[in-house]
């Protein structure tokens, strides 16, 4: 049986409630996971606040200074040039005790990473996965890039880190952080079309300098179904793994990739993504699983609970057990979700072209594929 660590405590629940776009998602997820008895198969580890040095392993000193400076401000009523410069407006509005929040979020992911460094097979932190934050600014609901900070910590022991991003949005912040590195391969599967955030992640974006070829983008159009997506994932993940031969893996599992998310656009069900994660588990690498987007709270809770069950290798009932949020899972009170009747916009031929480009880039730039 795999050694699995699960990051959870009341402090991280309290901090995550500061994000209006997800509300009490952290509590709902943990409560559903608990109600299925899945925590009995995990070692529960409390999150911890990280240090300013941890933040500075990725973020600029100016940005960290800004977070510290505004931590005790509670009467900000207008968007100033200072806030705009650091992305603290619009989709990332100022929140109460913002420095405490960012150190808590990054610290929760570092707690998962530390468990891996200490020999745990798998660590789960559904509170992490904020992949849009840039070095010097917040972006896309992401105030701190806990993923990048976690990868830097992983590299104190592991030479090569494979990052897989399953969120419906492109993992631009993580890609930008490692676009010059040949020791971190970033692979992002995401919806990409005109006007869809963040607008980056073309299949032709492959990194720069010594990192050229170590950035992989696998875009798709909206309304993608599992019939199209799962083979697409398996092909690209397999060639990336074979070419890179990673020592450790970190997977962002944004819940907005599931059908029914108002900021998403796919026609994917949890069972589609479970097939993808099963592929990753088959590599038997030390792996960190993180959350991310997911703005349909109930669907995200169902998805991450099923992922947790898969990771700990326990079959669970489709019926929702009694729990503190039971009534929110009505009217059917099951894990079931349903695809829409919208026509699939992606074709196997189009996505096969992307796979062909990815394989070509790997052969051109990575020795193991030569």
Helical content, roughly? 25-40%
* Intertermini distance: 37 Å
The main sheet comes to:
8 strands, parallel
- Total count of helical runs of at least 4 residues: 12
C-alpha-based Rg, rounded: 19 Å
Total beta strands: 8
Main sheet: which strands, in order across? 2-1-3-8-7-4-5-6
Query: Which strand-content bin applies to the residues?
Result: 5-15%
Q: By helix and strand content, what is the structural category?
A: alpha/beta
Mean pLDDT: 97
Stretches where pLDDT is under 50 for at least 5 consecutive residues are none
Q: What is the overall silhouette?
A: globular
Succession of helices and strands: EHHEHHHHEHEHEEHEHEHH
List keywords for this structure.
12 helices; alpha/beta; 370 residues
What features would you describe in this structure?
This protein is α/β, with parallel strands linked by helices and about 375 residues long. Helices cover about 35% and strands about 10% of the residues. It has twelve helices and eight strands. The chain has helices at about 10-15, 25-35, 50-55, 60-70, 80-85, 100-115, 145-155, 170-180, 225-245, 270-280, 295-310, 350-365, and strands at about 5, 45, 120-125, 160-165, 185-190, 215-220, 250, 285-290. The protein has an eight-stranded parallel beta sheet, with helices on both faces. Strand 4 (about 160-165), helix 8 and strand 5 form a beta-alpha-beta unit. The longest helix is centred in the N-terminal third of the chain and has 20 residues, at about 100-115. The model has no long low-confidence stretch (mean pLDDT about 95).
């Amino acid at each position: 049986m795999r050694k699995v660590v699960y990051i959870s405590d009341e402090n991280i629940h309290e901090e995550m409630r500061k994000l209006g776009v997800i509300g009490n998602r952290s509590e709902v997820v943990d409560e559903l996971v608990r109600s299925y008895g899945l925590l009995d198969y995990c070692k529960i580890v409390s999150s911890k606040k990280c240090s300013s040095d941890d933040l500075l392993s990725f973020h600029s000193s100016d940005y960290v200074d800004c977070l510290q400076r505004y931590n005790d401000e509670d009467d900000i009523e207008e968007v100033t040039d200072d806030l705009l410069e650091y992305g603290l407006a619009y989709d990332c509005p100022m929140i109460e005790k913002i420095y405490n929040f960012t150190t808590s979020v990054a610290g929760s992911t570092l707690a998962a990473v530390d468990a891996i460094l200490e020999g745990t097979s798998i660590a789960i932190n559904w509170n992490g996965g904020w992949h849009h934050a840039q070095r010097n600014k917040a972006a896309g609901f992401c105030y701190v890039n806990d993923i990048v900070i976690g990868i830097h910590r992983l590299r104190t022991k592991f030479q090569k880190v494979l990052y897989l991003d399953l969120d419906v949005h492109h993992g631009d912040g993580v890609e930008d952080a490692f676009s010059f590195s040949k020791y971190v391969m970033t692979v992002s599967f995401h919806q990409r079309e005109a006007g869809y955030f963040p607008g980056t992640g073309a299949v032709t974006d492959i990194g720069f300098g010594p990192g050229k070829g170590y950035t992989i983008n696998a875009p798709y159009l909206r309304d993608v179904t599992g019939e199209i997506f799962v083979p697409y994932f398996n092909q690209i993940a397999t060639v990336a793994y074979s070419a890179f031969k990673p020592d450790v893996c970190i997977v962002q599992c944004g819940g907005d990739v599931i059908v029914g998310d108002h900021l998403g656009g796919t026609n994917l069900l949890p069972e589609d993504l479970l097939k993808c994660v099963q592929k990753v588990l088959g590599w038997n690498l030390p792996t960190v699983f993180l959350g991310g987007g997911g703005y349909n709270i109930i669907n995200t809770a169902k998805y991450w609970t099923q992922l947790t069950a898969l990771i700990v290798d326990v079959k669970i009932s489709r019926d929702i057990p009694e729990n503190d949020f039971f009534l929110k899972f009505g009217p059917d009170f099951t894990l079931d979700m349903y695809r829409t009747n919208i026509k699939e916009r992606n074709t196997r031929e189009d996505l096969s072209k992307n796979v062909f480009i990815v394989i070509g880039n790997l052969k051109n730039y990575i020795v193991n594929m030569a």
